[in-house]
Amino acid sequence: MAPTFRPHRLQAPFVIREALVRVCAALAARQLIAGQDGNVSLRIGPDRLLVTPSGFAKGALDVDDLVEVSLAGEQLAGRHPATSELGLHLAAYDARPDVHAVVHAHPVTATAFTLLGESIPDGVLAELMLTVGTVAVAPYAQPGTAALGNVVRPLFRQHDVILLAHHGAVAAGRSLQEAHFAMESLEHGARMIHAARQLGRIISLEDAACDALREARRGARNGSASDAAFMENGND
Ligand SMILES: [Zn+2]
Hints:
Blueprint: H1 14-29, E1 39-45, E2 48-51, E3 67-69, E4 75-77, H2 86-95, E5 101-105, H3 108-115, H4 126-131, E6 136-138, H5 146-156, E7 161-164, E8 168-173, H6 176-199, H7 207-223, H8 228-233
Parallel strand pairs: 6-7
Antiparallel strand pairs: 1-2, 1-5, 2-3, 3-4, 5-8, 7-8
Helix pairs in contact: 1-6, 2-5, 3-6
The site of zinc ion has 6 residues, from loops.
């Protein structure tokens, strides 16, 4: 019998694949993605990422649908092609060695700000300043092209969450949970600001309050341990 092609087995342990699949389901449940939107990646070794496949409804993925790629974008394992937005993810890992997970979604209200040429206003929501930080807006680049990675790469050096003009948003985190929660908080904050604008004129926090929040965010980030070690040990 002729040998048949068998993709290399996924190295990521079941619990880690399950965690990634759960994040995808949560993004769909919160309507941060629709149809085949969105993609998620997680660092599982020094040169290995676990990523979502191209072209699936991400809310209903199976743990065996995931794909493993190198940081150069070469497919290492999995039965499907990797996400077509791999370049967006690789740009984050390239720009920031502390990044261990990336979530790309299409949050409705947050993305709507970019249609007006705006970002999410900074200095108005305390929790957003603590958990997400200043949100950058990357200039428009066509989805699925190398250009998209190129426009976000420099912004990731200073920001954890970037809006993609006329497209969506991307969040990088030191853990899967951090990147996931940043995406949720981005949309939640955008909805509050949208609601406030319908009521009247937004009043910014005082400079001293903003400085204290930025300092608190810096302190929290320097102090809290990354779960990267767990993820990488999980690959043993
Ligand atoms: Zn997209």
